[in-house]
Amino acid sequence: MRPTKEQYYLNIAKEIAQRSTCFRTRLGAIIVKDDAIVATGYNGAPRKTKDCEERGFCLRDKLKIPHGQRYELCRSVHAEMNCIINSARAGVSLLGGDLYLWAQDRDGNPIEALPCFVCKKMIINSGIKRFIGWGKEKNVKIYQIEDWAKEWQDKDIIDDKEQYGADQNLTDKVLNNGCSC
Q1: Which residue among 82, 142, 146, 151 is buried most deeply as judged by most CB within 10 Å?
Q2: What is the predicted pLDDT for the residue at 166?
Q3: CB proximity list for 15: less than 8 A, separation 6 or greater
Q4: Cα angle vertex 49, ends 48, 55, to 5°?
């Protein structure tokens, strides 16, 4: 069966995620404009710095920081950020483009692909038109970026119905016998 365009591009993002150096989550992102890939990115430490794999541990795991919180203590630049940064390095406009994101846990299982609040703000400001990720129901989820901006006009950022890390924190809590530590 021939994959849809969304599945096709998510499969490419999945392959890019394999370059990730994050212990917690592997993410791969691509930006597509006019049916051509204009940028790619995965989560990992800034260029020419040591990543979690080189150091042998995740600082956020060591400090027991839940998913979706305290990103200033993370060594990694997020896949979406790297994708936007790489397009700027190449002088490529993102206006009207689509950002595809694939996410998987440390065991390689697909997880819901949503941007964190910092990445969501960058995506809104970059001029990207749509965000396409893998949903928790094991399906393709498509979001219109203008809808995110409208929601934040009416509500606050913390009122988002779908937030990155919520499903992973729930899984972590179950694995730790109810402890959120």
Answers
A1: 82
A2: 54
A3: 28
A4: 135
**SS3 of 53, please?**
helix
- Which are the catalytic amino acids? 80
Contact 75, 52 (CB under 8 A): yes
Which segments of the chain does DSSP mark as H helices, in order? Answer: 5-17, 52-55, 59-62, 79-89, 117-126, 145-154, 166-175
* Residue 51 contacts residue 21 (beta carbons within 8 Å): yes
Q: Which residue, 47, 112, 118, 53, is CA-closest to 80?
A: 118
pTM of the full predicted structure?
A: 0.84
- For residue 142, what are its two tokens? 């498509």
With a cut of 90, say whether residue 180 has pLDDT above it.
no
From CA 86, how far away is CA 44, in angstroms rounded?
13
Residues 6+ apart with CB under 8 A from 52: 21, 22, 23, 45, 58, 59, 75, 76
Instruction: Give the CA-trace dihedral at 61, 19, 139, 109, to 10 degrees.
Output: -50
Q: Are 57 and 160 in contact (CB under 8 A)?
A: no
| Least confident residue range of 32-41, 136-145, 156-165 | 156-165
* DSSP assigned state of 110: B
